[in-house]
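ugh ok fine here u go
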Amino acid sequence: MRTVSRLPAALLALALLAATGGATASTRTVDDADDTVGKLDVRTATAGHAGDLVAHTLTMHERWASKALQAGTATMIFRIGKRTRTMNIDFRHGALFAEICTEAADSSFSDCSKNVGLSRPDRKSIRITLKKRLLEKGLTSYRWTASTYLNQGESGCTELSCLDSVPDDSSGIRHRL
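structure:
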């Protein structure tokens, strides 16, 4: 019996995601106003999928260095579903780092996975790619939000001026798979 590697198929799917700016099967982009001081003011948030991969892209109004996400300086959080899976993205040991975890009612985290792809398509954006099963097995749709936070004292931030969320309310953005 012949064994076939899944690596070429996975690389092809990632190439499709990159070439289309997020996905081929279904893509949705939500605009956000220029409403926050600092480098991490979100301009657009995009979700898409192709095959068994889901991609989210956040594009800021201004250019920003990956170092802006250093632990203790800034964190991006994706809330997927009803606050059951949370993804934290930051900058550790000279590189971008992401982890997706199950969030309990008491805000503690468990069942964490680091199988998350991160890339910088340009100086204003970050793209997150993961397998659908990391969100939930058999998932057909979900709601998500993205938040960025830059610590007080960075780029003229006051206590709350550098917190940005997409969408601005808590309704979330629905993505059908």
